[in-house]
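Figure S7 source data.
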Amino acid sequence: MPAGAPILSAAQMAAAEAACAARGIVPADLMERAAHAVAREAARFAAGRPILVLAGPGNNGGDAYGAACLLRAAGCDVRVAALGEPRAGAAAAMRARWAGPVTSLADAPPRPFVIDGLFGTGMSRAFDGEAAARLCEDAFILSIDLPSGIDADRGAALGDAIRADVTLALGSLKFAHVAGEAASRCGHVLLDPIGIDVSSSARTIARPRINPPAAAEHKYSRGLVCVIGGAMGGAARLAAAAAARGGAGYVVLASDDRRTPLDAIVHREPDARSDTIADVRTSALLIGPGLGRDAAARAACAQALASDLPLVLDGDALALISIAALAARRSPTILTPHGGEFDALFGAGDAPKIARTVAAARASGAVVIHKGADTVIADPEGNVIVANPPSWLSTAGTGDVLAGLVAARLAVTHAPMRAACEAVWLHQRAAGLAGAALVADDLPMHVPQAIAECR
Ligand SMILES: NC(=O)C1=CN([C@@H]2O[C@H](COP(=O)(O)OP(=O)(O)OC[C@H]3O[C@@H](n4cnc5c(N)ncnc54)[C@H](OP(=O)(O)O)[C@@H]3O)[C@@H](O)[C@H]2O)[C@H](O)CC1
Ligand SMILES: [K+]
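Tokens for the predicted potassium ion complex:
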């Protein structure tokens, strides 16, 4: 996935495209650039294999006809199969430029390399993809802009959507490249800006810059993280270990369980939880991993919410708080819900995940890390960062590790959105370093290497 790339809705993309006209760049120019970009990538990936171009009735089809012409002119073996005819505009002009035969999808013989130009951002209703599926079955598929059959904003498959090996996004990434079911249908995503000026409050995650501590720093100035644990000691231990490896100067673990994951982590008895939450030296307080939901947990959560400390709320804590109590806080707050915890706190809804996460951040005044295969990070100002963490992270305890990293980065940076993004990046990079079949315990030891890569 391109790092730090803007992400737009289909309507925002159309507006950016329209704004090009003011600079004298008309739709036919953009399609010409799109066709060149598609032909370039197709030639690279096809590597001499016979190419079948699937062309639809809209501008996605126009891009496809343009690429077919360029590839044929470059000496490639190209055939075209179409679904409907472009009726007007730049797409019709591109269609007219193609002098070779055009067959229907049903009549086309399969070829080993397919350029999927059936539908892009204009996909508006379910699509009967049976004929296309036959042609794509054993082929390498390069999708133009989006795999055909995908709702660009929701990332949902409308009928029989195509599953691409490579998707070349044009102009900007769309929500479907990073969110929802569609993200997994895109294969490897490339982006060609084709000269369109794009600005967006939503971007893909990028490697952060993390400086080493200044020479005069000491353990308290580096950031004191207090982890408030409860009945399930393992979760809090994982979080504390991650906080210690994540760059905090000092980590305190107040938990029923006397074991600490590292000798460098200071244990406090659970009856000292209240004093710990009241400790004004604390740079970031983490509450939730393994906390439980009993009366003591509820009281600890209420005290944490009422404090002026920068706060990270995870796991059980997310079930013990209200949006009103969050909104009343004046200090930085970060929430780390997975989908179920998010729905329980903010309500389930039909809107795309990015929009729901922004609404949650606005309502709570907190930075929200809405975890999942597409992790959406939003702040109350509407800024959004999207990450696609490795699927090996879908195992017990990895959320506790993330919570600990979030607390560490909040303690160091004092900036909740920055802290959330740094932590999510470090978490996914540590997972990459840990490799296949990782367990949560493996992650903290890889965080220092991930931090070292952030110079
Ligand atoms: N990013 C850019 O600036 C550029 C993008 N380009 C390419 O343009 C497409 C978007 O083009 P658009 O024409 O808006 O949309 P599509 O090509 O995706 O499809 C629209 C046509 O498809 C018909 N349609 C929609 N759903 C179905 C269906 N289920 N079955 C059959 N036909 C369907 C739709 O018909 P309507 O009746 O709904 O109007 C349209 O005819 C973008 O993705 C890029 O590839 C530019 O080329 C360059 C600039
Ligand atoms: K397509």
